[in-house]
Specification:
It is a single chain. Strands 3-2-1-4-5-6-7-8 form an 8-stranded mixed beta sheet, with helices on both faces. The chain is an alpha/beta fold. The protein has a single domain, classed as NAD(P)-binding Rossmann-like Domain (Rossmann fold, 3-Layer(aba) Sandwich). It is built from 10 helices and 8 strands. It has helices spanning 3-8, 10-13, 19-27, 40-50, 83-94, 109-117, 129-142, 171-174, 186-189, 193-212, and strands spanning 30-34, 54-58, 99-103, 121-124, 146-152, 155-161, 221-226, 231-236. The longest helix is centred in the last third of the chain and has 20 residues, at 193-212.
Length: 252
């Protein structure tokens, strides 16, 4: 780490739990972010600012005027631009020393299998159940830690699914892929902007802790945020030994 990088990241280096070794691990790490919208915006900006060495963004959408109320990585001037290109521009403005890889495509199983294999941590910032299941399946297959967030209206939730720990559930343990769920999209239901900012920022926090080696993570807990009350609640969650996704991989 040269003097400029040391100065840039000095406030992290000063933390006893983080230090120079933690910063070195972060600088050598690869984070994969699925979705560059409301959750992905703060997540990608904080990971870029923290100096994660390589960040891969996946999103097939373009910036729309309706996004700007909450998707803080984008600007009015970049309406119509791909979200991954817009987010990358914002990230480079904060930290030009990192590597940013852009995939302006929808995250399908084949792409995820390739990208997850090379990642050190995966952040699911997507907005639909199918993508979340596909991301989880790839993370289970490659035993990569997954930081998954979601937000709608005034409510948000967050957890870490880390199959490196045999006691940790995967996303499908809580939300089975064959269950019936009603998709609630913010385009229909609305979303309070600071809620996605809160959850996306916490995703960045959990990802950085995993990369820097700071414990404990949220694995085994489901954190829920109520933006009306400005209150957090936490539930303990366990691995389902009969989970159709992770049971065999986790030795269940």
């Amino acid at each position: 780490m040269d003097d400029e990088a040391l100065l840039r990241h000095s406030r992290h280096v000063l933390l006893e739990e983080y230090g120079i070794d933690g910063q070195a691990r972060v600088g050598a790490a690869h984070a994969l972010i699925i979705g560059a919208g409301g959750l992905g915006s703060p997540a990608c900006l904080y990971l870029a600012a923290a100096g994660v060495g390589r960040i891969t963004l996946v999103d097939d959408d373009t910036v729309d005027l309706t996004n700007l109320q909450r998707q803080v990585a984008h600007t009015t001037a970049r309406v119509g631009q791909s979200k991954v290109a817009s987010a990358a521009e914002a990230m480079r403005a904060i930290n030009p020393d990192i590597v940013i890889v852009q995939h302006a495509v929808r995250a399908d199983g084949a792409l995820l299998d390739t990208l997850v294999a090379s990642a050190d941590v995966v952040l699911d910032c997507s907005d639909n159940f199918v993508t979340r299941q596909a991301v989880n399946a790839a993370c289970v297959a490659h035993a990569k830690p997954l930081v998954a967030g979601a937000a709608i209206r005034f409510d948000g939730q967050l957890s870490v699914y880390d199959l490196r720990d045999p006691a940790s559930p995967c996303y499908a343990c809580l939300f089975p892929p064959d269950a019936e769920y009603e998709e609630t999209r913010c385009a229909v239901m609305g979303v309070f902007a600071p809620v996605v900012g809160t959850i996306g920022t916490l995703q960045a926090s959990e990802a950085l802790k995993l990369l820097a080696g700071i414990t404990p993570s949220l694995a085994g807990q489901l954190l829920m945020f109520d933006g009306r009350r400005t209150a957090f609640d936490s539930l303990k969650v366990a691995r389902d030994p009969h989970c159709s996704v992770c049971a065999q991989r986790a030795g269940g």
